[in-house]
Amino acid sequence: MQSFWNERFASPGYKYGTAPNAFLEEQAATWPAAQTVLAVGDGEGRNGVWLAEQGHQVLAVDYAQAGLDKALALAQTRGLEPSRYATLCADLATWRPAPDSADAVILIYCHLASALRRPAHQHLAQSLKPGGRLVLEAFHPLQKGRPSGGPQDVDMLYTLDDLRQDFAGELDEVLGWEGEVMLDEGPGHQGPGLVTRFVGIRPE
User: Fold this and answer.
1) 40, 47 in Cβ contact below 8 A?
2) Neighbours of 54 (CB within 10 A)
3) Which of 17, 100, 147, 192 lies 20 to 30 Å (CA to CA) from residue 109?
4) CB atoms near residue 67 (< 10 Å)
5) 52-82 tens-digit pLDDT
6) Ordered DSSP codes for 54-91
7) Quick one: which of 95, 107, 109, 102 has its CA closest to 34?
C-alpha cells in the first residue's frame, strides 16, 4: 500500500488539488489562533499547508514520502517557514504521537483497515490536549463503486457507528453525520460522494 501511494503521488500535479477540504475549512473557521495541529494522512499537503497559512503550527504525517515531498514544495511556494509546516514520514501501524501534545488532529480521507484503524484512532485521540478537537471526513461504505473516489475495500470505509466506537471513552462527539456531498478536490475526488463526518472534543 505504501508503494501504491508513493507511485500515485509521484505523478505530475496534485491528485486531490491544492485547496483545503471544504468540511475542514468550515470547522477550522471556529478554531482559536495559533493551534498546534497534527495533519494525519496529509498526502500532498493541501490541508496542512492551508492550516499553516491560517497561522497554525502543523506537523503533517504520512507514510508516502513522495506525497510529503510535494507538500513541502507547496509550502515553499506559499512562503511558509519550516517552523510553521513540518513533515514526518511515519506508518500509523507503529508511530505514536506524544500524549497531550496537540490542540487539533485532522484526518481527511485517511482510510485505514479496521484492524489498524481503532488503535490508531485511540492513540490520535489521546494525543489531544484537554479541550482539543479531532476533525475527520472519510468515505462511507456505500461509496464503494462510485467514480468520485475512495478505496474499493469496504473494510477501509467508515460508518458513523465505527467512529463512535473507535473514539468511545476518549472524545465527546460534537458532530456526527453521514450523507452525500458534492466533491471538487482535484482529479481524485470529483462528483457526488457518500461521506462520514465526525468532530470530537477531548474532555477537560
Assistant:
1) no
2) 16
3) 100
4) 26
5) 999 999 999 999 999 999 999 999 999 998 8
6) TT-EEEEEES-HHHHHHHHHHHHHTT--TTTEEEEE--
7) 102
